[in-house]
Design goal:
Elements (H helix, E strand, L loop, with lengths): L4 H7 L5 H18 L4 H14 L14 H7 L16 H8 L13 H4 L11 H8 L20 H12 L3 H6 L2 H9 L5 H15 L2
Length: 207
């Protein structure tokens, strides 16, 4: 399916021009291979991407939380007694909140921050990085260079791989955008914002 830079920026007007151009080029190159190949599927995919990476402006998860932010977003991991040790320290925050899950080691291993969310749909955790690294689509030593997922084409290819691997076309084909959001997010975080992009994309693609 062909995608143009103009279409990307109609849906994501704040997207940097060069990155939007790269996104359009690689999407056109890979969409058929990953099955994101109809207007309905493209609309769902671009809407989720637009929210997840702030219109292509943020391809690495922002973990620079204040003390109050940590207590609100991650109450399971932070209390009034320990939050001061972590506030405004993204590396320590990532290592704590992602420790001992998603294939990551302990807090001291550094895996949490090393394999924090990256890419157009924020691939997160050693296990998910390893799955993409072992796929036929990844070139080079991703585990040694996880920053590659915050660069094109890895940022987009990993998102399309994730979409295909999770079978997300079934939601897009039915127009079940809430179900699609839950499948990606685990809940409905940012649903209204995602829906805004979805309506723009549907209009752009005639979906």
């Amino acid at each position: 399916m062909k995608l143009t830079t103009t279409q990307v920026r109609q849906i994501m007007p704040k997207a940097p021009y060069e990155r939007a151009s790269q996104f359009a080029m690689y999407f056109t190159q890979w969409s058929d291979r990953f099955g994101v190949d109809t207007p309905a599927r493209a609309a769902g995919f671009l809407a989720q991407v637009a929210h997840e990476c702030a219109e292509l402006n943020t391809l690495t998860e922002n973990l620079n939380y204040s003390a109050e932010g940590l207590l609100k977003v991650f109450p399971k991991y932070f209390t009034r007694s320990n939050v001061g040790l972590y506030a405004r320290n993204p590396q320590k925050i990532g290592n704590r909140v992602y420790a001992n899950r998603m294939g990551n080691g302990s807090e001291g291993s550094g895996d949490g921050y090393r394999y924090r969310g990256r890419g157009c749909i924020m691939i997160t955790g050693r296990q998910n990085y390893k799955a993409y690294a072992d796929s036929q689509y990844c070139n080079g030593d991703l585990m040694g260079h996880p920053e590659w997922l915050a660069q094109m084409p890895g940022a987009l290819k990993s998102a399309m791989w994730y979409w295909q691997k999770r079978g997300l076309n079934k939601y897009a084909d039915k127009g079940d955008f809430a179900g699609l959001t839950k499948a990606i997010n685990g809940g409905y975080n940012g649903l209204a914002d995602r829906q805004k992009y979805y309506e723009r994309a549907r209009k752009e693609f005639g979906a």
